[in-house]
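Q: Structure for this?
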Amino acid sequence: AQKVTQAQTEISVVEKEDVTLDCVYETRDTTYYLFWYKQPPSGELVFLIRRNSFDEQNEISGRYSWNFQKSTSSFNFTITASQVVDSAVYFCALSGLSGSARQLTFGSGTQLTVLP
Amino acid sequence: DAMVIQNPRYQVTQFGKPVTLSCSQTLNHNVMYWYQQKSSQAPKLLFHYYDKDFNNEADTPDNFQSRRPNTSFCFLDIRSPGLGDAAMYLCATRSGAGNQPQHFGDGTRLSIL
């Protein structure tokens, strides 16, 4: 069985602060994929990143960065110099390779509020 | 340019009155999904199509049905909506190759009177 845990239900920061969203996962698969999605108040889920289990390189995209650590089963997401537009619910998700494991298993989401 | 389009954006129906939500895609993806998302919760998968093959999640109520007449379109039919069916309904698509990310539409927010 697959499981994704986002222990932080809500986070509030002031604009320009850095913030890290935690994600811990469980899977028995040796090959799997991890994702982050952003859901702004308007409701659509916006894909941010996909990472496969064999690629532990950290990734940076503008103000966003991701830290994948297989040893601790974590895939954390950091926003540097946060902005009000970053306010959203962020979901971490996991999928395996075959059958029902290919479906996305979502974490419960972290509501991020960036205050001006 | 919108690639996964859901109509309508907001839908209001009466208790017990059938309702249909629609989803179309311009990505030519094999796989289409329907999710239900209630307030402050993660999306919950209802069913998905891989091409024409329909896959129902074990806990999806019988009240929910789906149709996929062609690659581009997929419909969610709720035969007799109850108050508990009020939610955001999200459609997503994915290329059948590998574990490509799912692309989501803007969702339809369904209210039941």
